[in-house]
Design a protein that fits this description.
With 295 residues, the protein is of the alpha/beta class. The longest helix has 34 residues.
Length: 295
């Protein structure tokens, strides 16, 4: 196994910087190939300009079992455009030509990764390809830790983070297993169901966060059900990162032709600004309390 260089550190470095600054990470999701591969690259740059700390790039797959109708339609449009994992990697490579700083995590399902690994000659070849184009991490929805040991070990050997999902129904044993296996960050699904299927249940998130925090110091991102600045700021009180997907895909879907970037960039920037304002308020609050007790 040849990892071809030192571990990639963009994700860890970004979370470390945010922690020092007292800020919450913003992790927007878009689907590669929706509405086109060329627009995907432009959207990735727009997300970075708007303040994205990590970009989650969806890998099109014909049976996205965890995704609701909005992301399913995005996947269908991408597949109709001929975009799969190989074309997704081409998008990352094109993005990296101008942006070497913003972490990119591929989010998808096992089938495309396994198929490409077979075509390339094995997991080492797959991981080498991901690393070469500039992928920082992978989140394979249907790969729990106990069923992806070889995949995860190979990715980590090539410096690629492996992100896992946790849900409100995750047992204590599953939380412990994910916290032990995950690198980069943990993605906590805030609701029971598919993407875009229900309103954010912040009380449930608040209840579960301490159980996950006890397992270690790996950052925790929360996604599913976050649709606006208010929801993002509520999550930011509890988590290290806010993940927004379906709401961005809706903006892409309803944008006038050729205007996806013009619609998405200000929306994401509004979330970034709201998160930063909330972070600034949290930083000021302890000082005010100290002033009250120590005139």
């Amino acid at each position: 196994m040849n990892a071809d260089g030192p571990p990639l550190a963009r994700i860890a470095d970004r979370f470390a910087s945010l922690r020092e600054e007292g800020r919450t990470a913003l992790v927007p999701y878009i689907a590669a190939g929706d509405p086109s591969a060329t627009t995907t690259i432009a959207l990735m740059h727009a997300l970075a300009r708007a303040g994205a700390d990590v970009i989650e790039l969806g890998v099109p797959f014909s049976d996205p079992s965890a995704d609701g109708p909005v992301i399913q339609r995005a996947t269908e449009r991408a597949i109709a455009n001929g975009v799969g994992l190989v074309a997704t990697l081409d998008c990352v490579a094109a993005f990296r030509a101008d942006d070497r700083r913003t972490p990119v995590v591929l989010m998808g399902y096992a089938n495309p990764f396994e198929l490409l690994a077979t075509r390339l000659g094995g997991l080492d070849a797959l991981a080498g390809r991901l690393r070469a184009v500039g992928v920082d991490g992978v989140l394979v929805v249907d790969y729990p830790p106990e069923e992806s040991e070889d995949f995860a070990a190979t990715m980590k050997a090539f410096g690629i983070a492996v992100v896992y999902l946790l849900a409100p129904t995750s047992s204590d044993a599953r939380i412990e297993a994910v916290a032990r296996a995950a690198t980069g960050y943990i993605y906590y699904v805030s609701l029971r169901g598919i993407t875009g299927s229900a309103a954010l249940d912040i009380a449930s998130v608040a209840e579960r966060m301490p159980l996950i925090r006890r397992q270690g110091t790996i950052p925790i991102g929360v996604g599913f059900g976050i649709r606006d600045a208010a929801g993002a700021c509520a999550v930011a009180e509890l988590a290290d990162a806010v993940v927004i997907g379906s709401r961005i895909i809706e903006a892409i879907e309803t944008a006038p032709e050729g205007q996806a970037v013009a619609v998405v960039e200000p929306f994401v920037r509004s979330i970034r600004d709201a998160l930063d304002e909330a972070s600034a308020r949290r930083r000021r609050t302890p000082a005010k309390k100290n002033e009250e007790h120590h005139p």
